[in-house]
Amino acid sequence: MFYDLNVPYTTNHAELQRTLSFLAERYNTIALSHTHTGKLPTDLTSPIPTPLPFPTPPGLHILTRLTLPLLTPSQAPRLPALLPHYTLLALRPTTPQTLLVACQSPVAHLISLDLTSTRLFPLPRKTLALAVHNGIRFEICYAAGVLDGSAGGGGALARRHLIGNATALVRATQGRGVVVSSEARSALGVRGPWDVGNLAAGWGLGGERGREAVGREARGCVVRAEGMRGGWRGVVSVVVGGEREVGKGEVGKGKEGGGKRKAEVLEEGKKNAEKPVSKREMKRRAKKARQEAKAGGGEDAASERMTQDGSAKKRNAETGPVTKTCNTADDSPKDTTINIMDKVD
Questions:
Q1: Rounded to the nearest 5 degrees, what angle is found at the Cα of 83, between the Cα atoms of 24 and 142?
Q2: SS3 breakdown of the chain: % helix, strand, coil, rounded to 5?
Q3: What are phi and psi of 202, to 5 degrees?
Q4: 60 CB contacts (<8 Å, ≥6 apart)?
Q5: Cα separation of 173 and 170, whole Å?
Q6: Which residues pair with 232 in a beta bridge?
Q7: 338 pairs with which residues across the strands?
Q8: Do residues 127 and 152 make contact, with C-beta atoms less than 8 angstroms apart?
Q9: Those residues with Cβ within 8 angstroms of residue 177's Cβ, 6 or more apart along the chain or in another chain
Q10: What does the pLDDT profile of the chain (345 residues) look like in tens digits?
Q11: Contacts of 158 (CB under 8 A, 6+ apart)
């Protein structure tokens, strides 16, 4: 699949329809771009009609895009309000300060620099690497460098500036996160995906990286934009479907359906839920259990001794005293009576 993420929208619908028909021969997804200059208005609705007022080629996926030149860093707080109205948001920095703001923006999808300008401000590698790490792509538009001034291009001077600035951008990004778009206002400025790969080779991108600039890298930008619009932080997407029917008496029917309200069920659950036991309470319970075990062990020992004493007395009563004859020091036998109970005691 090939992508062209910068096709300027014009009110000349006949010319725009021819451009889209030509793009549909080689590209699968295109983005109609609207460039807004000046202060952002209160009404942020998109001027691009959806659907378009003329028939479009079948199989061509059309997105909407806003290209916003950043003149001052004070424009950054209003950028999140633009996301619901456009599929893609491209920022065009004009100073090194606004370049830093664009690279740190959490809502920007593309950074589209004006590479046909006479003098481009420095491009710090660390700043561009931060943007690539955040998923932001850098865009190179080639239409101004392939057309003459009479055909809507910038001429030889713009072509020379485009080649030099694009080479500097590729060198600063090390060829990562680069997207190539046309920005063509007519079908004359559009080139096929393989021709774009050849153009990118002249800017320092290899053949494989040049084809990825209109394929994999552009697709990654679109997927990230759709994830931000239909999900939470681009991680969790909300999918409609899979709901089960709530039966009678279940939560959600309300008082009329004979069931309990959701709030009442939650209150009842909170009341019935057992409070977690604290560490102090656990220690107190363990100490109490040890004391009970110790007291129970002492009572068992005392009862066992009493049982032994009772058995000894019973045997003594049955057998009577035991008589044993022993010799004394004068070798005269004497009778010694030994009471078994005395021995036990």
A1: 40
A2: 45, 15, 35
A3: -70, -20
A4: 20, 23, 24, 27, 28, 29, 30
A5: 5
A6: 236
A7: 322
A8: no
A9: 131, 132, 136, 137, 138, 217
A10: 899 999 999 999 999 999 999 999 999 999 999 999 888 877 788 899 988 999 999 999 999 999 999 989 988 898 988 888 999 999 999 999 999 999 999 999 999 999 988 778 889 999 999 999 999 999 999 998 888 765 556 678 888 899 999 999 999 999 999 999 999 999 989 999 999 988 899 898 887 888 899 999 999 999 999 888 776 655 666 555 555 554 544 444 444 445 556 566 566 666 666 677 788 888 888 999 988 888 876 666 656 666 666 665 556 555 555 444 445 444 444 444 444 444 444
A11: 116, 144, 145
Q: Chain centroid to CA 238: how far?
A: 13
Question: Which tokens in the block code for residue 105?
Answer: 């923006």
SS (H, E, C) 152-205: CCCHHHHHHHHHHHHHHHHHHHCCCCEEEECCCCCHHHCCCHHHHHHHHHHCCC
